[in-house]
Amino acid sequence: SSGINAEYGGQEVVAVGRVLTNTGTSMKIELGDGTNVTVSFVETTEALPDSAVEINGRVSDTSRVDGMACRVLSDDFDMKLYNDAIMVANQHQAYFTTAQQPA
Q: What is the pTM (predicted TM-score) of this model?
């Protein structure tokens, strides 16, 4: 796995993945594309190994995210289907963009 694109450094992101390990303040997750990312939290975060989670955080480098929030997703969350949907959205961005509203 190659990690998070360096272009996202310092940016806030939403990442969906499966929990590999969790110490409470440090969680290793596997993203839908197989990339492993370590997420650090200030407060204890409860998510059991093998749980699907949505992480809101800021990218600190290509393998680390400073977590701001963690939401545990349903037990039957389909990571492959989610990743396939993201791939389709990326390939057809014109259909999945949000129109900018005038100020």
A: 0.81
Q: How far is it, in rounded angstroms, from Cα 87 to Cα 74?
A: 21
CB 58 within 8 A of CB 12: yes
Q: List 13's β-bridge partners, or say none.
A: 57
pLDDT tens digits for 23-37? 999 999 999 888 899
* Separation CA 38–CA 84 (nearest Å): 23
Identify the weakest region by mean pLDDT among 5-19, 40-54, 86-100: 86-100
**Start-to-end CA span in the chain (Å):** 41
CA neighbours within 13 Å on the CB side: how many for 91? Answer: 6
Buried residues in 45-64 as b, exposed as e (16+ CB within 10 A): bebeeebbbebebebeeeeb
Pairing of strands 36-40, 64-72: parallel
